Amino acid sequence: MKVRSLASWVDSEPSGRCGLIAMSAVVSTEDVQRAADVSPSQLYHYFGDRRSLIRAVIAHQTQAVLDRHFPLLDRLRLDDFEALDAWRDAVIGMQRAAGLVAETDPEARADLAAGFARWETAIRDGLDAMRARGELRPDADTGRLALMLLAAARGGQLLTQVRRDTDALEAALDGAIDQIRAQRP
Fold first, then answer.
1. What's the pTM?
2. Are 57 and 6 in contact (CB under 8 A)?
3. CA–CA gap between residue 80 and residue 10 (Å, rounded)
4. Alpha carbon 13 to chain centroid distance?
5. Using 50, 70 and 90 to split pLDDT, how confident is the model at 16?
6. Around Cβ 51, how many Cβ atoms within 10 Å?
7. CA separation for the pair 133, 40 (Å, rounded)
8. Closest CA to 151 of 108, 62, 91
9. Domains contained in the chain, CATH given
10. Mean of the per-residue pLDDT values for the chain?
11. What is the C-alpha separation between 179 and 184, in angstroms, rounded?
């Protein structure tokens, strides 16, 4: 097999190789070689080392996401609430169509899910207490508000790590808390 580029290699068998390559950060290079059915020399010819492979995967996946989103952003322009809602629906639809991230370690995924559930419950408990004290409307959906705040925190934390500043985290949490404030009676 000749490997011409990461894109052609991954795209040649997306359901198999793409999932495996996406896991390259958590599996050994030898595991990637075996599962992708390539020799060490092929892998190291195109990716000098494991770090290069991981960086190439990140670049490929980033471009794939941008390729899907930019036409949508160009069409919708996100300059009114209707466009924001349409963008939200499209992003969710794309995620559903793509399926969930492959489970490489179901036990680890279950541990993470349990940890996030505990965090979400703690946030919801606090919001429930605010509602009980009359600080939030009786019909405030504290479960959905808690999930929103958790998603803002985790997304903001990820962007903070990548960007090396807290602007994204601040913006995400401020926006989520503003939405919670909007639930005051």
1. 0.60
2. yes
3. 37
4. 22
5. very low
6. 10
7. 64
8. 91
9. 6-98 (no CATH), 106-181 (1.10.357.10)
10. 74
11. 10
